[in-house]
Amino acid sequence: MGVARYIKDEKDRINDVILQSGIRVKPLYTEDDLKEAGFDYSKDLCNPGEYPFTRGIHRLGYRSREWTTRQYSGFGTPKETNERWKLLISQGQTGLNVAFDLPTQMGYDSDDPMAEGEVGRVGMAVDSLRDFEIAFKDIDMGKIGSGLTINAIASIMVAMYQATAEKYGFSKQQISCTPQNDILKEIVGRGAWIFPVEPAVRLIGDVIEYSVREMPRNNPVSVCGYHIREAGANPVQEIAYAIGIANAYIDEVLKRGLHIDDFVARFSFNLDVFGNLWEQVAKFRAARKLWAKNIKEKYGAKNEKSMFLRGIFGGGGGGLTKEQPENNIVRSAYYALAAALSGAQTTALCSYDEAYTIPTPHSALISLRTLQLLMEEVGLRDTVDPLAGSYFIETLTKQMEEKIVEEIKKIDRLGGMVKAISAGYIQKEVARQAYEFEKGVQYGEFIKVGVNKYSGGEQGEVELHEYSDESAKEQIKGLKELKRTRDNREVARTLKELEKATKEKKNVMPYLVDCCKAYATVGEMTGVFRDIFGEFVEPSIF
Amino acid sequence: MPERKIRILIAKPGLDGHDRGAKVMAHALRDAGMEVIYSGLHQTVPSIVKMAVQEDVDVIGLSVMSGAHVPIARKLMELIRKEGLDNVMVVVGGVIPTKDIPTLKEIGVQGVFPGGTPFEESITFIREHARK
Fold first, then answer.
1. CATH architecture, range A4-141+151-442
2. Measured between CB atoms, does B40 come within 8 Å of chain A?
3. Do the Cβ atoms of A465 and A359 come closer than 8 Å?
4. Which residue among B16, B20, B42 sits closest to A232, beta carbon to beta carbon?
5. Distance to chain B for A234, nearest Cα, Å
6. What ipTM describes this predicted complex?
């Protein structure tokens, strides 16, 4: 939510500023601060496109290519989603970012009792290949890449994406999807987990390995510091935990005989942008540098591309308020500015009504325009890493880097991220911070305009996206019809093969593609995994 | 004999995994001297009621962020009545549009605390209304 703690005197002069990461901001920065921080241009910065990539991974930044805008969207039935996507593409959006409803994320079919009341509510319902065929109809899958917000069953959705593309005449080498495929952050921050940690991480590895070998344009994992931050972590932890989680996946894939340079260049990150502007910019610059060092020094990568921290920097949902919701339009514009000043390659914004519900077409379009006007109108494409060399920004970047390194060491002492998460340590730490933060807002220590300061005045009504259970009924009807008309023997056969491969610890991806092509449902495929893996049991601490 | 502390079950029904608010409230209520039990994620209405009985709670606090608060609350109230847990108070928090509050109250939910409600407000309400 808020940004930093401000200590003021009785005349409202600021005596002290403490950022969320605990770093104190001074009233003035000079050359001396850089000296004191041990700043060394050739080690800490170099030019954009040069190791350690603090200034960005591309030599010319946005001059060579503006950012990709990828608004999160999808709701109701696949047909409704298809219409929304076509609208966004016609308005200049350059990639899709698919939202799935909760039953789909959790591996339940729309007619499962667990799905009741949730079908199509927060995203699109997907039961089978039939739904993807409708959703991607008339979309140029050879050109438009798709982010898939799916984790526990990312393997199933990537298989489904391939099956759909092949149906429409695109080859698996030609298409590109970016599943989130980050189960550890689900356990820490977002809650859409199904299987215990070990088999869950194995499935992550299957998607990465299969992508590297068969779907080379995929970005098979998007490591989401984002949701961990939204759950309460501070910006330092956001980066430290993301790097820790990414390393856990790297270790899983290395076990399969691949070399670091074979796959890590396809990793991407999903990071958050709300909060203090300077802290965000310093965070992204420090993160790029630390990731590059991690890959080069810890894993011995030789290829420079392996060291690029690529990703989507955006969202900012945690900063939005229910109070005076139109203010969120302005707030998001500043968050987008932070992303642009940090050299985000891909971005998206939460829409102003998202503190209430999923966005209307109107609010989603405002977000898209906000991003476009930064690139087109106010000069963010002019020059690369414009804040570089600032006494303040470079000092802060160094300080952030030190803090993140300290946090990474803490995780190492706990035996790595998988252990720290299995024991519930990270979840507890994040929840504690969320509470401290909420207290800070409630007692006015962190200022939120319209919430604990300047909260008077008229309260505008927000036009909200309305959920209709008509879509759910239509979805369930379609599913019933599918089950009647598909070749059920072929379904049973492919599911049996999947079961065998899963038990034999083979990479499940080719078997999932066959299941999808036979129109096996998401619930049926997940059911195979549930029976073999069981379910994750949450550590009961908070 | 000192008065028994208020026991409250913070419950996350359904598939929604956003538990930041639930855990923040769990901390706040514990700091306010209540005994807090957290259900963990992905609970069903029957599993919540079962837990409420086992833990002998005075209050069930439902946390719903997905928009499904009305159907879930309705189911919970029906089961509570069926099980004869008439002295268990139900409150709801999460992403709750103002227009849904009257509906929730009609169903039998006593307190509704949308995200951002001051801690003091929910704590005072629970103290004043639990076990009444």
1. Alpha-Beta Barrel (3.20)
2. yes
3. yes
4. B20
5. 14
6. 0.91
